[in-house]
Each structure stands twice: as C-alpha cells, then as structure tokens.
Amino acid sequence: MATDTPDFDQAKQDLKEYALKRGAADFGIADAAMVEKFSPDGNGPSALLPKVASVISIAVTGPTQGTWRAPAKVMTSVGANVGRIYRVAVGLSFHIESHYGYRSIYCPPHVDPEFGARMPMQSLKLHAELAGIGARSLAGDILLHPEFGMAYYGSVYTEMPLPPDSPMTENPCPAPSCVKLYRESGQTPCQKFCPVQCLSGDLNEDDSVAEMRFDMYRCAELCQQYENMPTIMERAIEADDQLEREELLYGAEAQSFFYKATAGVDTNAQCFECMRVCPIATQSDGVDPIRRSAARQAAEKGEA
Amino acid sequence: MPYGVSEHMVETYGELIFDLSLNKQVRRGDPIRLLDHAAWLEQREATGLTDPEIAGKTGLAIEQVTFIRNITERRVFRLNQYRKLFRLGGGLRYREGRYQDPEEKFIISDDAVALRQAMHFTPSEVKKYIEAGDWNDEVLGDLLATIDPDKSAIVVPERGTSFGELRKSADCLAAGLREQGVARGDVVAAYLPVGENLIVSYLATSELGAVFMPLDSSRGGLEIAEFLLRVKASAIICEATQDLLAEIQLLQQELVHLKLVIAVGDVPAGAMSYNELAKTEPSARLPYEKVAADPILLTAETNDQAEPLIGILTHQNLVASSRQLLPLLSFSPGDQIDLTNLPADAKCLLLIHTILAAGAAVSLGSEEGSHRVVGREGDWIEIGNVKLWGLNETLIALIGEAGQEIVKAVEGIEIRIFGADGSVQEDGGTGELQLRGPSLFAGYLADQKTNSMVRTADGWFRTSLTATVKMQSDGTSGYVIA
C-alpha cells in the first residue's frame, strides 16, 4: 500500500514516459469504475483486482511496411507484434508497485479458461477505447488509432488513482476512401476482402457507422486455427480410408499446426486481410516505421 | 451426459445460445466511445452475451450453456478455411466466388476413382521417365496456347480453321459440357470420323479434366453400347445417331451413367445438339487443376472373347510420345498432313497432337497446298517415306523407312525380344516383342487378369507379337515384326 500520496498528474506523466521509452506508441488511462460500468457483470477489472482504481492501456504499433506487403502466409507467421506489449505492461506493473507502492497487475490477454476458446477474460479493447487510444472499427470492432493504425494493446490494473483520459472525440473509421467504396458497392474494403465474409454493416448519411455486424464464428475459422484440431483428430479416428486418415493426421494442415503448437508459434490471430486493406491500419502517419524515422530525423535536425 | 446436457438439449438450445453469444456481434452507433451507457445497455444482447448472462436468460446452468455453446461452435466450424490465406497477399486480395478449395479441385466421381485406381506404372520406370524429362507437367491443353492463333490448324476443302478458332471452339464446347454436368474424371466417348469435331471434342474434354474415348466408326451400335457400359461414360458425341441411339436404347437401363447423347447434325429424340452445345459462352469459372499424370485418353480394343478392353493413357504418355515423334517426322509450320485414311483412335490423336505441336495443319481431304498423305496397314502407319509401328496401348514405338522390313526403337522406348526359353534374344533370335517406355499406357480398366498377363513386374509390356532381332552395322538393334 502507498504510504505517501504522490502527485498523480506527475505520476501519470512518469508512467507514460516509462511506457513510451520501453516501446509503447501510445498510453492512456481509463477510470476503473467507468470500465466496470461498460463490462458485463463479473467481467470488469474488479474481478481481477478488487480495489482497482485505474486501468492503464498501452498501444504498440503493428507490423512493418514490408510485412504489410508480404504474402498472407508470411503475415500469419510474423505479422503480430505483441512481444513489446508484455515488456511494457508487465514492466509498468512492477514499476508502479516499486516506485509508488500501489498494487498493480498485468491484465492477462487470454481467454477465460472457465468458458473455452471464445470468451476473453477481460476486454482489452474496452480499456483502450475508454482510455482514448483506440476506436472501434467496422472490421469486427478491431480498434484503430488515427495515428498508429492497427495497434496491439495491453492493460495494467492498479489501485493507484490516476487521472483518467477520455475516449476519442472522433472515430477514424470509416476512412473517406472506404466510405467512397461503400457508396459505390455497398461494402467497405474490410468487408469486401474478408476471406470468410464475416463482416458487414451500414453507414449513416453522415458517414458514421449505423451498424457493424461481425460473425466472429467465421473469423475464428481463420484466426483460431487450434479449433480445427479436435475435429481433425475425431475425423481421423472415424476415417474408413487409410489415405484419408493419413492426410488428416500428417497432411499439411496438421503438420503446420503441430509445428506451430510445439514451436510456440502463434496458432491464433493469423489473418490480417481486413486490416491489410484498411487505409487507417496501414497508411496512418505513425504506422510506417520508415516515415516515423524520417520525421524523427527531420525533427532532430530542426532542433539542432 | 456432461453437465446433465443431452443431445436433444444441444439441438434445442444450440442455435439460440450460439446466436446470443459473442459469435454474432452487432453494434449500432458508437455507444462506448460516446459514453452512452443507456444505448450500450439497450444493445447488450446484440453485441454478444457472456455465458453467465445467457444462463440467466435461458434458465440453464452456466456450465450447461458453456458446454452447449462450445459443442455448437465446434459443429458450425468449417475446416480448412485457413487455406484461403495461402494465395493471398503481395497484392492479391480475396474475392468471394473466385476461391476454390484445393480439395474441391480434385473431387471426382466413384467411377472416375475406379479409373484412377486401375492405373499402374512401375515406380522405377516413373522415376526414370521423370529424371530423363520424358514426363513433365505438360498437358494437352498447353499445346494450343503456344501457337500463333492466326495459323491454320485444320484444313478442309474450301475452308480452314485457325489455331485461335480451334481453341475458341474447344473452350465453348468445354463450357457446354461443363454446364451439362460433365466433370473432372468423367468419360466422354466420341463416335466420330477423323475431322474437326473429333479434334474439338478431344481438346474440350481435355480442358475439363475429363477422359476422352474415341470409338472407331466401323464398330456397331451394340458394341459401342458395351464400351460405354464398361467405362461408365457420361457422354457420347456421335454422328449417324439414329442407328446408334436405337442400340443404346436397348441397353438404356444398364447405361445409367450416360447422361448425354450429343448429336452432330440431325438431332434425334433423346439427344442434344452438338452445334448448340458448341455455342456455349465460356464462363469465368475457375479452370480445373491440370495434372499431367491424369488420364486423358482411353483406348477401345477387344480381347479374344470380343469383350471390351479399355486401355488408359495419361497426358504424360501422349506428350512424351509426341515429343519423341516431332524430330522424326520433321513436320514444319505450313505443312498440311492428311489424316483422312486413319481411324479415330489413340494413335490418330497422337498424330494430330504432333502435327499441331509442330505448328503444322491437319488436312482432311483438302487438295490445296502441299500435303502428305498418311497411309495405314494394321498397326503400321506411313507418312511420306517414314513408317511407324505401335499399338494404341503403346503409341508409336518403332520407326523405319517405308518399304524396309527392319525398324528401330523410337528414342526413349526400350525393346526386348523374349524367347520361348525365357531369355532375352540377341542378333537373329526370335521371340515375343516386349516394350517399355514413357508412352506406354497405364493398364487396362477393371481387368486385373489381363493386366497381370500383359505387364511384367519390372514394367515390360508383352505384346504377344513375334519379332526377330537384327543387329545393324552401326551396332544398334533393328527388329523385324512378323
């Protein structure tokens, strides 16, 4: 427990600097009570940390420009950029406890083991949205950041009462070019190019989102490859034909899954096709490491 | 009964729970970003409920909801969607309707499976042909794509057909056959004389991945029907259909596989028009996956008991043989080779293939321009001063000069004369002519007994013909066939 009351505004600034220094692209704070209010019963932050006061949300940038242009099967292998989240968020939780004396916990980004593969333990999306570092998109509510595009998010719960941020005043989705395509064809790029056609929706007259429809169960067919495996094994057991059994157990699908499972490579979140055609995800100013670097160098020269 | 859930309960509640869960999410507006709690609450059910929430709504236990939801998810889950990603990226985007699952490309009927299972090549021979480059990925359809479309492909009196026109005709007929349900692996028989319709039918069948069976027009209707029955043909394209149809109708109850009788010219009742079918506009449907190892041609012979004997030839057999023949026959662009004397069989189609591959034209009774008449006697074919020997099962295996008795093996073909004493004969020795090579067929359909009689374990084809070895002054082997 904290012994001396710190300057929370200063502490917030300190935590933000800590996070950015360790690789975060953006940092925001949501009021834990507000997160609780928008969470299903029993799924709010207090389920993990009963006296939680603040939810810190951090964003890290997505893949490189080269990766965005790679074949889909390459992106499934190296597209995700989640390693830094762990470094920043876990580091933050230790930093808060050691420097400020408030209990903190890294919010697990995993599914709830009580309910299977499709229910998250907590909604990191909700945290980032309320902390003002992401807004829900037409692409299945994947959060988009106006500067950093498709970011990856991590959260830290703390009993430290930090000054909260506000949600974004504007939602960057849909982008003007997406609206144009929607007006012409009835679909935005993310809806049009989804390999399992899991996205649909409508826009209002003012181009804001009227309705976003997301068939998550279809998305899971691409993004949660591990869900294939029990069925494949069941079919192999029941197969009458030896070749069919061998294809099921030793074919490319099974081989690549077992490789990924045993090598510790992700077997989830492997499809990027909706984001690949999203101008916000791939072309926003802060998305491109090449442009970011050029801007930084220009700024440094200017300062010099 | 896990958690007290019966199969009936899964069926009863599955869809409801699935729809209420996060599997289907609908968001109206942007309520969380706007901190509009009332709007968020109002659409909670649409955005997806948790299992405890669904339990509260349905009166089931949480564990029951979780179990039913997970089982339903598993049952709804479509396997192998992940494959859709393999050809995307690097500029290529998914387009609904254009994707074809790899497995779907290879779906064939049970009869086509039976045909595939009847094919047997010796592993060591296959390795040899592939290593030598005799067998590769070329398929019949590749032929037309490489030739100038304005060049003449077929010349008949007073008109000609260019390669471009031939290709278009084949595309249209293929589209028509596809629309009528002819699919990969199906057998399309042709009871046609050597002519443009035969060539177009052959190429169209190849485009579909179907298997072509030319039937000699000297055969009677009942005999034709027996062949159709044996190969379980899906379609027959024919001329002079009145008599043939009458015979076929006698066996109608047995010919359950025959979906299409396609008539050239007059169209009798029960048949469809070739001319109409050949006007079909090719669709943008995905082309079938071309596999050079697939069967393309069936030979229709009879055994000693006059029963159908169906040999299976692959693209690789045909292409290898054609490639061997090209330098031997010296066809050049502009040549016109008259084939009207030949029966419509595998060797004839091989020659057509070879002529077209050379950029030359098949001549059908045309008097115009230079042309070389092809004669035929038994298993021999003469083209100018070259004579060729082969069976439909072996394609062209031996070559010699017209008028000369001694012939030699075509490059790539191995010959041995197997004596009655069980030894391979040397100069002057006589015995059974046995062949091995990349043009030799894959076996007889549904005739294990004959297959085991005509093929040795190491891949030699026993012709049952007698031949004598004649060593040549240059040290090569010549042969005289009795």
Structure description:
The complex is a heterodimer of chains A (304) and B (482). With 304 residues, chain A is of the alpha+beta class. Among the domains of chain A are: 151 residues, no CATH class; 39 residues, no CATH class. Helices cover 44% and strands 13% of the residues of chain A. Chain A contains 15 helices and eight strands. In chain A, the strands form three sheets. Chain A has a four-stranded antiparallel sheet with strand order 1-2-6-3, sandwiched between helices. Chain A has a two-stranded antiparallel sheet with strand order 4-5. In chain A, strands 7-8 form a two-stranded antiparallel sheet. In chain A, strand 4 and strand 5 form a beta hairpin. In chain A, helix 1 runs antiparallel to helix 5, helix 10 runs antiparallel to helix 11 and helix 11 packs parallel to helix 12. Chain A is globular and about 70 Å long. In chain A, 43% of the residues are buried. The mean pLDDT of chain A is 92. Chain B has 482 residues and is of the alpha/beta class. Chain B folds into three domains: 75 residues, no CATH class; 274 residues, Rossmann fold; 86 residues, Luciferase, domain 3 (Roll), CATH 2.30.38. Chain B contains 16 helices and 21 strands. Chain B has a nine-stranded mixed sheet. In chain B, helix 4 packs across helix 5 and helix 14 crosses helix 15. The radius of gyration of chain B is 30 Å and the shape is elongated. At the A-B interface, helix 4, helix 6, strand 4, strand 8 and helix 9 of A face strand 1, helix 4 and helix 5 of B.
* Strand residue percentage of chain A: 5-15%
Kindly name the structural category of chain A: alpha+beta
What count of domains describes the coordinates of chain B? 3
Q: Output the CATH homologous superfamily of the largest domain in chain B.
A: ANL, N-terminal domain
Relative helix content of chain B: 25-40%
Strand order of the largest sheet of chain A: 1-2-6-3
Number of H- or I-type helical stretches of chain B: 16
Low-confidence regions of chain B: none
* CATH level-3 fold name of the largest domain in chain B: Rossmann fold
* The CATH C-level class name of the largest domain in chain B: Alpha Beta
